[in-house]
Amino acid sequence: MSNIRYAYMCHWKTVPYKTINNFREFYYEDKSNTAYYSDWDRLLRYQKALGFDGIELAPWDLADLLPLFGSAKNFKEFALDRGVEVVGMFHGAHACHDATKEDEVIAAGKEAVDIIVQLGGTQMNTCPTDNYYGIGPLSREEVQQCAKAIDQIGRYATDNGVKVGLHNEFFCGINRENHREFIDSTNPDFVHYCIDTAQISILGEDLLEFYDTYHSRISGFHLKDTADLAVDDSIRYSQDPEIRDDGHRWFWEPGEGVLDFEGLYRLLKKHNYQGWINLETDGSPDYLASMALSKYYIDSKLKPIYD
Amino acid sequence: MKDFSINLDMVNRHYQEPNRNRYESKYFWEELYSLIAAAGFNGIQLPYEPIWQFGGRSGVPMNTYCLQTKYQSATKYKQFLRDAGIDQVSAIHFDANLFARNDQIGFLFGATGHFASQAVDLASELECPVLALSPSPYYGRLLHYYPDLEGRRSEFLEKTDEVILNLADQANIKGVTLALRAEYWGLYNPRTLASRVSSYNRSNIGLCLNTAHVHLAGESPNAYADANAKYIKHVELSDTQLASTQEFSKSANPAFPNTAATQVFRDVGTGQLNLKEIINNLAQKKYEGCFSLSNHQTRDHNRALLRSRRFVNQLRVQEK
Asked: Is A234 within 8 Å of chain B by CB?
């Protein structure tokens, strides 16, 4: 039995069909690859074939996914029929630094937990508050307010069998200067941490040191590489820096950037990590190719270190 | 000489396909404008999509926030377009499907009114004459979130009227015309929509004739134009190979038939509609607005652009 199971953080954009039964006929309409990327049935089969047994959804998937399947439970069963379980859902705790919006933030968090339970998931990887641009720098009180709101969501999540994993991005209001203060201000009984390997490295954290320090709080990973370490404040604090005007990519497949994943896996072994690692392919022009490329790297370089 | 523009809805912003990530970056659109001009078109139609504001995807030039983020103002964006060979934004289109995402009717109509109002302002700032407006979200999508939709139909229609009339007041001040788009997938069919427009009795509320939509709703686009000529303020030339949408028009996502996968909208000139006849008919009815070439759901926007040019070239040859 492996210690690590691999999932895919869903970045498929809107998928219009559940299953395409007239696949050949649909292909011949235009003889393009559209037929290959238009139904959940095939997308789930691709990832299962590549060894990704779980899927983490995103809240922006739901507006189309729920009407398509009728309910969260129906999607859960559809995915399970193809050997894929829903591991959880990403969540944005928007405005959680703002005390006047505390009730709203907590209600939204609880609503997301409820959906995750219906999906059969156990993770809610949660991005604290909004982008730095527009709200930063946060005051000490605002950082504490973030922690207070997330703690309450975390308590509710825990009661419902879901782990809240903080998921910081390099352009958030919680940023390099208060990242650890924020983590340390949350209650470790209810609030955990999902390391996005690329995001925290771009933010300015040392990936290996960070994991080694916080290993007891780590509930999951978003696995991806980057070639940009500790980028300047002028980028992290800028307006909408995630998608660059010139097409510069922040994120790459593991092994295509500069992060020390072999070192990370040695630490995973040291701390006996057990759980999901979710591959994330945002920024890629071809998710299927990225998934395959990443899995080859995992199988050939990382699994021999720790499986 | 008829005026043709290219509807930017030919770029697949929302559905999965390889290389889709390019569409979120500014560089993609800035090259596209010059390619549209190179294909011989100097006008564009812009979908107004608030979603790009929420995820920090402001490279997609489809709402006020994005244009202000990347170009500081609509005026500077318009200047950028001019420099790329695009002289006119012929229409902006708005639909409310994004806000049909829960059972809160106040949210649906509040957000619709708020963001459609932004679209009116943007149209004015871009000197764009028309806001084409989908009168309702998809019927099937509404039904998912409001299972008692039929029992509440009059409530939905009253709130729709309220939003439209408020927008019309604003648009009137701004010099913009509202063109309600007859569609096969909403709360209104083309006839009930035309009747609604007539009842408004406002000079700046008319109809947007999307040729494939009207055909797929079971009406002849020519007959529809004949019956409603005085109300037609904007035309989207779209094509299809399908004859009917009865089996899927009320499904949750009616742009993708759940009975069997198929491409509902085909590139202009590659479906079964006689678009030339429709153009000539509208010309006889003294329609003087722009013809927006709509290649919604194309599998290749660059090929669609050239197919659009081929279509227009063939029209011009036949005119001679």
From this structure: no
